[in-house]
Automatic annotation (TrEMBL):
A matching Pfam family: Laminin_G_2
Domain of life per record: Eukaryota
InterPro entries per UniProt: ConA-like_dom_sf, EGF, FA58C, Fibrinogen-like_C, Fibrinogen_a/b/g_C_dom, Galactose-bd-like_sf, Laminin_G, Neurexin-related_CASP
Protein name in the entry: Contactin-associated protein-like 5
Entry keywords, A to Z: Disulfide bond, EGF-like domain, Membrane, Repeat, Signal, Transmembrane, Transmembrane helix
Domain Laminin G residue range list: 176-357, 364-539, 786-951, 1012-1195
Membrane spanning residue stretches: 1230-1255
Family: Belongs to the neurexin family.
Lineage: Eukaryota, Metazoa, Chordata, Craniata, Vertebrata
Role noted for this protein: May play a role in the correct development and proper functioning of the peripheral and central nervous system and be involved in cell adhesion and intercellular communication.
Organism in which the protein naturally occurs: Coilia grayii (Gray's grenadier anchovy)
Disulphide bridges, residue numbers: C924-C951
Signal peptide: none
Length: 1307
């Protein structure tokens, strides 16, 4: 039932006389009198502000300010509040003066301006390019205002500022009520209570305070609605349920908007239908749904506006009242203010509510520059003390707020904002000081009031309404003759004024010195004090976290000029938490060299879905992804009937949507269902009605129990034609008293996995069913090698428009022999995005979001058209854009803080070409991923001329030709494995690389600083750069030692973080992580017993965020949780063996580091680096430091073989010992036969040796010089190692042969 009242107006809440923006476009300036125009200055009388009307030619033909005016502006008074829909500008007639760019301010009073911002929060309007052309701008959203101010930013390069303007719109009428903070309006219903299933509340308001109740209503059963301002944010609290029956189920609270206490108008619309609630503030809308039981809102007696009066106590309110003005206040179509103005009986007024908006408000000043803004004010007639009072608001955590020199130089008081806390310091001398520190989180964008008082020997500091904090002085303080607010003027010496890190950026108002308010208008006119880079009558604070550009639940924080995203704990990284830190599949984990174990995967990458934990089973030929559920054990079912069946639901470790994406990405998926039965049928034998079934991923009922194609009422035995009774399609339907089996493998991907099973025929005597539902298992990654070949320059693949307004990431691999070509392009009306091979060794990313074209180029030191696979990844978001090619330095560019940020595309996406059919790409592309979605190039290529599915070559398939991170390189006669980034060597990167360490030995990498990031330019890089790990580490190595404690590996950063893997005093392996300087390290001991046993042990460590997985030898992965998911930020060095002189390491780690490592380290891998191989290959490099005696060794291989042989022998003894004893009597003949065979073998060996000797003797006589050369070469060949002690000294300066063996060919 909607509320209504006698005589209530039910017109719309927009009361523009034009009837709509299409008709609200009349000129508003042309008829204004001269008094409606003001300006900051005028160059001459003929160029005064009155001549600034569009197309006017009299006088000087327009307005021009003085040449010395550093902050010119033109102001227009429209005489009353009107609706403005458009503006137009023109230069000064017949001159070379015009404005090429400007901002627009608006206000109801000329002492409180607000900056108009278009879409994307852009404040700048493009202006003129000549003196007489007219540039017209239709406002993206109309404004209701009386005053407009044009602020020129850029002007004619050949002249000066010249301006003529016109404003378009229409009259605006409204009903206004003014609340003084102690008043309210009560709207009383015609009946005792009002119950509604639909409510619409609309209003506009401007507030003098950050807190206050706008609307409130409640009912006796517990229903309520409250709309209030809280710290400048609008909060809605709503409850639809009976408070006694459902205490909290129907309670909804939500907040919208920010900085709404800026003394400017804001519109509010609340719409509720049943449980759905929509709240819109200005142009931001939030949706929420009540989880309660009831659908209706039951309010008793009345709704109050402006406050919550306490019944029976006039003038007393339960909460802080609203202080400000409301306009066009409607409740369910009823104009509340109109009823109040006409004194209708439904409205009761509490306190003093007037119907004209009062404009008495404090005047704000903006300190805009982080280095040059300051305000210097005099202290008139210093008395026996000093008092200063002012208000400020800012987002910056560090700032200089105030500096007050005292009479005795260099004595002074300095007020700083330090980490969001106020600190008042009394400096007696450079070495003598005392402090007061109060408050916290003061950089929250709220207004805060500060009072400083100096009286005699006491200085007091008061913040907001808190008690004062004081400090005592040794001598009475006498005030000086001036006070400085904000930054330091250039004229002051560094000793008398210093900015801590930056000057104050923010807003200041209500300054009073010695209880005398400072007239900021006089300051602006130059009559009082001095200033620089201030904006008067205007608070320019913005909430850069609204809208929130941080994705995936990232936390937004901000400074005055930009925003930051805290991605900790989200599983994502990047400037806006856009990029997943997890691999997309188990297949991708194998590509990084990982072994079997539990891993988090994120199949949709930067898409909306979170990561999920799966088990990756890395077999020789396939990689299986295993998703488990909560009911993997066998279940026995008795007593179920079709009417009361047994029902079991399976909860998987992944959500339904995650399962869908994972299954879609896989080549094949399956799930085994073991079903055994005894007198329990699956289907009714008479009419075929199913007695058992299961539900698929979509909740659909399925009655088949095996196969890769969905069938009806069939089991695996019918597919294989081996059912025990061929009259039935399932063994169980034979209804026998013996146990039968209908186990099947479900493999139709669209139906997997099984979500629920229903069994309904086990209630007869002797009936029973036992089922076990296995885990979901998938293999293959359809997208990792999804590829297309482009053969014609005019050919391309078409896809739907790339949806990437706020964030865009594109990644793919390519190989080509062409010198250039466009990889992809998508156009809009003005915006576009293009990615291309611009030169044989350069990739260029070009885009335009409305601020002009932006180009990022990465240049490679080697050609990229070498017919090898190269990786490209680009990203663009409101904060920055970046381009990555292979392992080359990242190229990135920060976005302008106040520019356009929405990429608006409309045309189709062209892959491999452009809309003009020119400069198309010739070659292969694969694994094209855009915003977490991999495009199916192969499927689209099947229907496109000039393009074919797949790519030719050995390296263009998912066959794992190169192992352990080895890179497959195409050759004309085959392929080779480039093992540069692998810890292994050999033709297929499977040969272990080992080194023996003696006492004091170590290998240390020093990563080059700075981090490999290039700002808007590319540079070549052949070195190892300081690494940013993105909260992810992959570590693998093998070791053999008898020493404990020992240091195996340690990684340290420039920020006193470290990771260390050590053997403790008792020989147990420990993993240490210290990610925060001020917190204790995380220490984990995966295996408590000693590993210093002389045997080879393999260790794998994998970290993603807070999750760490450790695998030792053949153990299963053990999962551990770190206390932080911070990344190892800018890695300094990695050390194997002895560590000395590390700052910040804990004592136990230092003890292990000082002992070093004695033994063998094998195949060490840290992310994409292979330390042992680099020590051999990077001879003489300043980045690799080798201390002590190191030697190449194959101890890892031998230890592995020895271990394998010993295990095999041991098992053979255990398994065959009894059989040997049993057959001992039959062994005599075998022994005799063996002796005869041995004699024959020895004879043959002697003949072969004699023949070889004669041949070599003849060869040496014929070629004596060749023998000398061969002997010289043999001196450089290492003898074969026959035991663990065999090794050769490593010479890093002459390892040419080793270096050249990095590339091994397979033909």
């Amino acid at each position: 039932m909607s509320a209504s009242g006698d005589g209530g107006s039910s017109s719309s809440n927009s009361s523009s006389s034009g009837g709509g923006s299409d008709y609200c476009n009349g000129p508003l300036v042309s008829a204004l009198p001269p008094t409606s125009f003001e300006s900051s200055s005028t160059s001459s009388n003929s160029q005064s502000s009155y001549f600034a009307k569009l197309n006017r030619r009299d006088g000087g033909g327009g307005w021009s300010p003085r040449q010395s005016d550093s902050q010119p502006w033109l102001q227009v008074d429209l005489r009353e509040r009107v609706e403005v829909t458009a503006v137009a500008t023109q230069g000064r007639y017949g001159s070379s003066d015009w404005v090429s760019g400007y901002t627009l301010l608006f206000a109801d009073t000329p002492r409180a301006w607000k900056q108009y911002r278009q879409e994307d929060n852009v404040a700048t309007f493009p202006g003129n390019i000549d003196a007489d052309g007219v540039v017209h701008h239709k406002l993206s959203h109309p404004i209701r205002t009386r005053f407009l101010r044009f602020i020129p930013l850029d002007w004619s390069p050949a002249g000066w500022v010249g301006l003529r303007v016109e404003v378009y719109g229409c009259a605006y009428k409204s009903d206004v009520a003014d609340f003084d903070g102690r008043s309210s309006l009560l709207y009383r219903f015609n009946q005792k209570s009002m119950s509604t299933v639909k409510d619409v509340i609309s209003l506009k308001f401007k507030s003098q305070r950050a807190d206050g109740v706008l609307v409130h209503g409640e009912g006796q059963r517990g229903d309520f609605i409250t709309l209030e301002l809280h710290k400048g944010t609008l909060a809605l609290h709503l409850n639809l349920d009976d408070a006694k029956l459902h205490p909290s189920s129907g309670h909804v609270s939500m907040t919208v908007g920010s900085l709404l206490d800026d003394q400017h108008w804001h519109s509010v619309l609340i719409e509720r239908f049943n449980k759905q609630i929509n709240v819109t503030v200005d142009r931001q809308t939030r949706h929420v749904r009540s989880r309660g039981v009831a659908d209706s809102l039951e309010v008793d007696y009345e709704l109050s506006f402006g406050g919550i009066p306490l019944p029976g106590k006039p003038g007393t309110f339960l909460r802080k009242n609203f202080h400000g003005c409301m306009e066009n206040l409607y409740y369910n179509g009823v104009n509340i203010i109109d009823l109040a103005k006409r004194r209708k009986p439904q409205i009761y007024s509490v306190g003093n509510v007037t119907f004209a908006c009062s404009e008495s408000q404090p005047v704000s000043t903006t300190f805009a520059s982080s280095s040059g803004s300051y305000l210097l004010l005099p202290v008139e007639a210093p008395a026996d003390g000093l008092s200063v009072r002012f208000q400020f608001r800012t987002w910056n955590r560090e700032a200089l707020l105030l500096s007050a020199p005292l009479a005795r130089a260099p004595e002074r008081l300095v007020l700083l904002l330090v980490a969001g806390q106020l600190r008042l310091t009394h400096h007696r001398s450079p070495l003598q000081r005392s402090d007061i520190a109060i408050g916290q989180s003061l950089s929250d964008g709220q207004w805060h009031t500060i009072s400083i008082s100096v009286r005699g020997l006491q200085v007091s500091l008061t913040l907001d309404n808190d008690p004062a904090s004081t400090m005592e002085l040794r001598d009475p303080a006498e005030p000086g003759y001036s006070i400085l607010f904000g930054g330091c003027p250039p004229a002051l010496t560094r000793d008398s004024c210093r900015n801590p890190t930056m000057a104050f950026q923010g807003c200041v108002r209500s300054i009073a010195i010695n209880n005398q308010p400072v007239n900021m208008f006089h300051v602006q006119q130059g009559l009082v004090g001095n200033y620089s880079q201030l904006q008067f009558d205007f608070c320019g604070i913005r909430d850069r976290c609204l809208p929130n550009f941080c994705e995936h639940d990232g936390q937004c924080s901000q400074s005055w000029s930009t925003f930051y995203c805290e991605c900790s704990g989200t599983g994502y990284t990047g400037a806006t938490c856009h990029n997943s830190i997890f691999e997309p599949s188990c297949e991708a984990h194998r590509q990084t060299g990982s072994a079997s174990g539990y891993f988090s995967i994120d199949p949709d990458g930067s898409g909306p879905l979170k990561s999920t934990l799966v088990y990756c089973n890395m077999t020789e030929d396939r990689v299986w992804t295993v998703v488990e559920h909560d009911s993997s054990r066998g279940v026995s079912v008795h007593g179920s009937t079709p009417q009361r069946p047994h029902v079991a639901r399976f909860n998987y470790s992944a959500s339904t949507e995650q399962l869908r994406v994972l299954i879609s990405r896989s080549e094949h998926c399956q799930q085994e269902v073991i079903y055994r039965c005894r007198k329990s049928r699956l289907f009714n034998t008479w009419d075929g009605t199913p007695l058992a079934w299961w539900l698929d991923r979509a909740g659909e009922k399925r009655t088949y129990w095996g196969g890769f194609l969905p069938g009806v009422q069939q089991c695996s035995c019918s597919l294989e034609e081996n059912c025990i009774d061929m009259n039935f399609f399932c063994n169980c339907d034979a209804d026998r008293q013996t146990w039968e089996n209908d186990t099947g493998m479900l493999s139709y991907k669209d139906h997997l996995p099984m979500m629920e099973i229903v069994v309904g025929d086990t209630n007869r005597t002797g009936s029973e069913a036992i089922y076990t539902v296995g885990s979901l298992q998938c293999y293959g990654d359809r997208f990792l090698w999804n590829a297309a070949s482009f053969y014609q320059e005019s050919s391309y693949l078409l896809f739907p428009t790339f949806q990437a307004e706020l964030s865009a990431d594109v990644a793919f691999y390519f190989k080509t022999t062409a010198p250039s070509g466009v990889f992809l392009e998508n156009l809009g009306a003005r915006d576009f995005i293009r990615l291309e091979l611009s030169a044989p060794s350069a990739v260029t990313f070009t885009f335009d979001v409305g601020n002009g074209p932006v180009l990022l180029t990465v240049k490679s030191p080697v050609p990229l058209n070498d017919k090898q696979w190269h990786y490209v990844r680009v990203e663009r978001n409101p904060k920055e854009a970046s381009l990555q090619v292979d392992q080359l330095p990242l190229c990135f560019l920060e976005a302008p803080p106040d520019g356009h940020y929405r990429l608006q595309l409309s045309g189709q996406l062209f892959v491999g070409g452009t809309a003009t059919r020119q400069r198309g790409f010739l070659g292969c592309m694969r694994a094209l991923n855009m915003n977490g979605v991999t495009l199916d190039l192969e499927e689209r290529a099947k229907m496109t001329p000039g393009v074919s599915s797949g790519c030719p070559g050995h390296c263009s398939s998912h066959n794992n030709l190169c192992h352990n991170r080895g890179k497959c390189v195409e050759k004309s006669t085959g392929f080779e494995c480039d093992c540069t980034h692998s810890a292994y060597g050999g033709p297929h990167c499977k040969t272990e690389v080992s080194m023996s360490f003696e006492s004091g030995s170590s290998v240390t990498y020093t990563f080059q600083e700075p981090f490999s990031v290039v700002r808007n330019k590319s540079r070549q890089s052949s070195a190892i750069f300081a690494q940013s790990s993105k909260s992810r580490e992959n570590v693998a190595f093998g070791f053999v030692t008898n020493q404990a404690p020992a240091m195996l590996l340690t990684v340290s950063t420039y920020h006193q973080q470290y990771m260390a893997v050590i053997l403790a005093q008792n020989g147990s392996l420990q993993v240490w992580y210290k990610l925060s300087r001020d917190k204790k390290p995380d220490v984990f001991t995966p295996r408590p017993h000693s590993l210093a046993d002389g045997l080879l042990h393999k260790v794998q460590i994998h970290r993603e965020g807070k999750d760490m997985y450790v695998k030792i030898d053949r153990d299963i992965n053990q999962k551990y949780s770190l206390s932080s998911d911070k990344e190892l930020n800018t890695i300094r060095s990695l050390t194997l063996g002895k560590v000395t002189g590390r700052v910040g390491m804990d004592e136990e780690v230092m003890q292990a580091g000082s002992r070093g490592f004695i033994g063998c380290l094998s195949s060490v891998q840290f992310n994409h680096l292979a330390p042992l191989k680099a020590a051999i290959l990077n001879r003489g490099s300043s980045l690799v430091s080798v201390l002590g005696n190191l030697a190449e060794s194959n101890c890892g291989v031998l230890a592995d073989k020895s271990s394998s042989h010993s295990q095999a022998d041991h098992s053979e003894e255990d398994g065959n010992g009894k059989e040997r004893l049993k057959n001992a009597e039959q062994s005599d003949s075998a022994v005799i036969g063996g002796l005869i065979a041995a004699v024959v073998l020895v004879t043959l060996c002697m003949v072969a040796a004699m023949t070889r000797f004669l041949y070599r003797h003849r060869h040496e006589r014929a070629q004596p010089m060749a023998a000398v050369k061969e002997k010289e070469q043999q001196q450089h060949v290492m003898p074969p190692c026959l035991d663990h002690s065999c090794r050769s000294d490593l010479d890093l300066h002459s390892a040419v042969g080793v270096r050249d063996s990095r590339k091994e060919y397979f033909i």
